[in-house]
Amino acid sequence: MTQPDGARAESHNFQVDLGGIVEILSRNLYSGPQVFVRELLQNGVDAITAHRAIDPGCPAEIRIVTDGTTITVTDTGIGLTPQQAEGLLATIGASSKRDEWGMSRSDFIGQFGIGLLSCFMVSPRITVHSRSAATPGQPVCWRGSNDGTWSAGVVTDDELPPELTGPGTTVTLDVMPGERHAEHEVLRRRILSYGSHLPVTVTLARRGAEPECLSAAVAPWEMDRDAAARWCDEEFGFAPFDQVPLDVPVAGLRGIAFVSARAGHPGQEQHHRVYLRRMLLSERAYDVVPEWAYFVRVVADAEHLKPTASREGLFDDELLEETRQGIGTAIRDWMNNLAEREPARFREFLALHLTGLKALAVTDAETRALVASSVPFSTSLGMLTLDEILGKHGRIAYATTDDRFRALRPVAEANGLCIVNAGFSYDEEVIGQIRLDRPEADIAELDPRDVLGVLEKVDLGTEAALIPLVDAAELALEGQKLNIVVRKFLPATMAVLFLPNPDAAGRALEERQRRDEGLFAGLVDLMHPEKADDHAPQLILNADAGIIHQLAGAAVGGGSPVVVESAIRGFYVQALLSGRHRMDAQVRAWSSNLFTALISASLDGGDTA
To answer: Where does ATP bind (predicted)?
Structure first.
């Protein structure tokens, strides 16, 4: 190795603790030593990019050769000047534009130096030969060792590797004994993983053999739909339900969001594959997609996103947040278009991912609008969207539990009352948010009086005939603080209907609001006028049910008081059970003794009190 005027290169010690830096790189910064392949590829791409800036027609090649123990990586980039070689590693911490580890990747030389440092994780010695496009007559050689020494100087053309025929750089690594990093197949897999979509020609060869091009693969975001679907199946392990093209100009991002054809759940973490200027950044990126979009997996390439110091993740800054929002908008637009143009396919999507869509709707107004217009809810009158309910019935009344809905559905269905079942995940929260979005709309939790209001009042003759049964019921159910009410309703097979006590304070406030707004004028007239506590639970006796008239006859005509009492209590217990309402100790005791009392009365001929 020679320098101008015959001067020889001098040996120097690094101005940093090289052993400590390599320890940081291997244990704290990088996921493993395999990243040296990516760093060398990145160095080559950056050097070629710099060379093309001054010579657009220059070759764009990275040639990698291995013999199983030694790796050489040659690029046709801009090369290093003698001054750059002298300061190669000194620039790593010198720039004011450092990353979170205090290292500078802000310029070509800073990046090149950090890339070299990663090589010390697999090689105790690194040799760099380089010819600069700016000073082609002064090729240089830089040698570094993990003992902390290095040397650099100008060399003759005869001292250069034979593959370095023009501007460019050759990096030679002597892989540590016992390690597999220089094995051909190991290198091949890593090069394909990191660099198969690079915009330069990357080849790998065993020493003395023909090279294989590893960078000719078409990127998935450049494929047609069928090819992209096959890629998803091969790489992500599922045939996609659909594909959402992604284009976020602010980040220079292009990609595809593959919609899973398998049901998932909110909070399920998906790993996305992200490239940065066509170099693989991470196969396990999770922060580039909104959390609610758990039903997609993304592959994308970005020009402008900022990598972390390890270049294995994305820096969480405003640009990344804008990118997340852009991807979220694309997915939301896809859902809207699917609902509008392909309703059958949208129903298929809902069957897989309805819970996630509702989870998003809780916090996202646009998705709530989509849910309100396109997602059918279970109601007492069939499957209807919330917008359809408002359009047809003028209001949304919802039951907060599935059990309460099931208990009221037969009566509501038979009498034309629309009740929404909001007993499933996120339903109540979504409806509550829609209520806030649309303050002018009549949306409220079901008031039991709404059910009572649609039931037909009985005529005076029927009411008089059933008074003895009402009195008997009040006596039999003493202690339950119930209002006993007589109405006619379908189905006639349902003898009684229990309407629970809503929250008294909340209902009083709500009723005042309703009265002020004039929305329920005349509702009080539909209530039982002689009851002082309008908010007490209601037990409705069905005047259309034959068994009710039989019991009334027994109460008047000398029937067994035990049978009448037990029957009334039995119907009450049944009504509570059907709606899964709470039963106190008194009701539980009745439930336990019902059959005993009825059997005893039957055996005694109805005379036992």
So the answer is: 39, 43, 75, 169
